[in-house]
Amino acid sequence: MKYIKYGKHIADPFESLSAEDLLQMLQDFLLDSGFLSQYSTFYEMDSEGTMEQLRRALLDALEQQGLVPEDLLEEMLNHAENSKLSDLLDRLLERMAEEGYITIEQPHAEKGQLTKPQQGQAGNAEGRARFEITDKALDFLGFKTLKDLLGSLGKSSFGRHDTRELSTGVESDGSSRRYEFGDTLNLDVNATLLSAIQRHGLRLPLDLDSNDLQVRQCEYQSSCATVLMLDCSHSMILYGEDRFTPAKRVALALSHLIRTQYPGDSLHMVLFHDSAEEIPPGALARVKVGPYYTNTREGLRLAQRILARQRKDMRQIVMITDGKPSAVTLPDGRIYKNAFGLDPLVVSETLHEVARCRRSGIMINTFMLASDYSLVNFVQKVTEICRGKAYFTTPYTLGQYLLMDYMQKKIKQVH
């Protein structure tokens, strides 16, 4: 005789969560700048996170949302082997990997397969499974940040950078004129036919000549090359406030905005500390601050070299910093540092570099994440030299200032 055994069905408390929901819960962990571990080194940006760290961050996020049942949490805290909550967390992480938001590398398993650590591997970094967030995840985080920042301002759509000039594009906003070689062939049919009729009279067939061609004019929309300079000196996470994580989020949002709404623009990212270096957008999430000084001059020099390769109507530097320049690279390659006050040598060399940007037609917009009145004079001098703008803002309002400035001030830049 056949028997059917029935068991109690235990519902999955996380069944309704999508991979996007999980990614949004983990954004603080994925974009961490070292604020909770202020003695970590800058070059940890090259290291990969472990799956155990990601699992713990996911559990903390679910607990904060009140989504973890008490009985499952108690079972896990009692160190029960193969607890149901551990299995559920692994399923959630597998879902994120299957949908392309993270990649998982196991030391002794196939890529993308989650396994429990073998005995003796818990304390061995080489034996731990590691993860890496993908470009798809960064794009999603950039989109969510952009939506959050601009949603509060009532902005639902974005255009390109309008100017007061007229050209022959697709959208007709101006009067027609005679076609010239190189124009977009956006014909004004009525004006073209009328020109032919005026020359030869109303007869069929119409005798069209190249001089009869009339094209519609539209507003000329310029392209812009931007270098986003991020200060990653140690002061960005000091004084009880994380200033670098909001800066990274704004950088991701700006990258998403440019890629989707301003396809003709370009964005490059430069980190400046004791020296300066360019990083790809995909590496931004792993960047952490370090025990460094602020070599603003070196960052400006690198930004100028990048912009010199760009053939755009507008070129600008957007600098996010919270402190005074405290280092400068000497001609022999040594780095002169002075963390106390505005050193005359450092300030002088930095302002000379700002003047070179002005001569090259590069505008500098400075976003200050500090309220130190001793820096006001220095920042005002920078904006006076390069005819840029200065914003004394906070990590909470940085995104609104920066993104709205990027979209609204282009007319003044071109002219």
Provide the descriptors you would attach to this structure in a database record.
single chain, 415 residues, alpha/beta, Rossmann fold, 3 domains, 6-stranded mixed beta sheet, 3-stranded antiparallel beta sheet, 15 strands, 36% helix, flat, disordered C terminus
Structure characterization notes:
It is a single chain. Helix 6 (135-151) packs across helix 8 and helix 9 (296-308) runs parallel beside helix 10. Mean pLDDT is 75; it is low at 38-47, 115-127, 152-173 and 410-415. 36% of the residues lie in helices and 17% in strands. It is of the alpha/beta class. It is flat, with a radius of gyration of 28 Å. The protein folds into 3 domains: 19-133, no CATH class; 151-159 and 222-414, Rossmann fold (3-Layer(aba) Sandwich), CATH 3.40.50.410; 175-216, no CATH class. The strands form 5 sheets. Strands 10-9-8-11-14-15 form a 6-stranded mixed β-sheet, sandwiched between helices. It has a 3-stranded antiparallel β-sheet with strand order 1-3-2. The chain has helices at 19-25, 27-30, 51-64, 70-77, 84-98, 135-151, 189-200, 244-261, 296-308, 344-359, 376-386, 398-408, 410-414, and strands spanning 49-50, 102-105, 130-133, 161-167, 176-178, 214-216, 218-222, 224-231, 266-272, 276-279, 314-321, 327-329, 335-337, 363-368, 389-392. It contains 13 helices and 15 strands. A hairpin with a 3-residue loop joins strand 9 (266-272) and strand 10 (276-279).
